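Q: What would this chain look like folded?
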Amino acid sequence: MNKIAATIAASAIAATGVEAAEERRPRVAPAAVYETAPGLGHFTDEVLFGEVWERKELSPRDRSLVTISTLVATGKIAQTGSHVRRALDNGVKPEEIGELITQLAFYTGWPNAMSAVTETKKVFEERGIGSISHSDAARIELEKAAEAARSATVNANVAPTAPALADLTNRVLFGDLWQRPDLSARDRSLVTMTALVAVGQPEQLPFHANRAMDNGLTSAEASEVVTHVAFYAGWPRAMSAVPVLKKVLEARASTTETSETPVEIKVTRAGDGRAAASEQYFSGSVETSGFYKSDAPARIGGATVSFSAGARTAWHTHPLGQTLFIVSGKGHVQKEGGPIETVAPGDVVWIPAHVKHWHGASKDEPMSHFAVAEALDGSVVTWMEKVSDEDYSQAGQID
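A: My prediction, written as structure tokens:
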């Protein structure tokens, strides 16, 4: 009887052990990791693959895209093969992996992309995947207004210093690569945003994070990208991206809240708020009226300014520039060190950001203009010293 009881007990223990083994999560970390760095083995299996990869904020497919993007961007080619296999198992198509590498050649360099191709081809051959060809699908159409604004920014800020780079940015990067249908706009944004976090370039993140969410990535997914990248590119890179992404998410949330708030058209009547301009910032008799300020998220504002003959502003700058529409009379405008320009009704004057300048009426004739400027962090203008009579007298020489 004792032998029977012992046999039953032994069988029960054995069965329990089998059930526990079945429930135990299979190891991802190789045995050598546990033999050399057991803590790393623990965190690999229990945290990275046992927790992070299981989080629902990103699908397994997206996590594979993020992981491969991080490995390509940071040149961790030795790890690429295993994650290409995982990506294929998670539903990423071979042509999407090839296009991911192509995309990142532009954002993290050709050498990294070429090295990734070598490892990826080994996996494709192993899986019996043949040569990849271009997609025959229609090219992706980029939003025209956004593209016009982006192109104008490149032409204004890049072209004067590096014209070839500006041309390639507009013609090849956005005019060709971003329109290829081999990878969806949402996934192309996802891998680009990932790469920027991975290589520690958060200054480029606002544009591409906004673009990613415009292309369909949710704010929760964008946040999870940073979390996932922390494990593959390191905590410092992820932490540096957090405050940048925070500002993007807050700005988008504010815009959404504002857009959902009912608004009314506002009419500022001619002459509303008429008042004499401050003598601290103007010389001569100057009157302002029609002040208006837009509602957030817009940041534009303006007013009508009327100068008597010989009156003018002090020297000043604007953080985001200023536009003047000449309404009546005859006036002058000058940037520091530049010639004095004469302006007349119908003329439109653009003063770039941070350019020190003044404007006002001619010596013998009054002038009125409508001034428009945008605020940056609540600031519209920085006033400086007054324009001296000697400097202004040069305007009289051209009247």
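The two ends are 124 Å apart (CA to CA).
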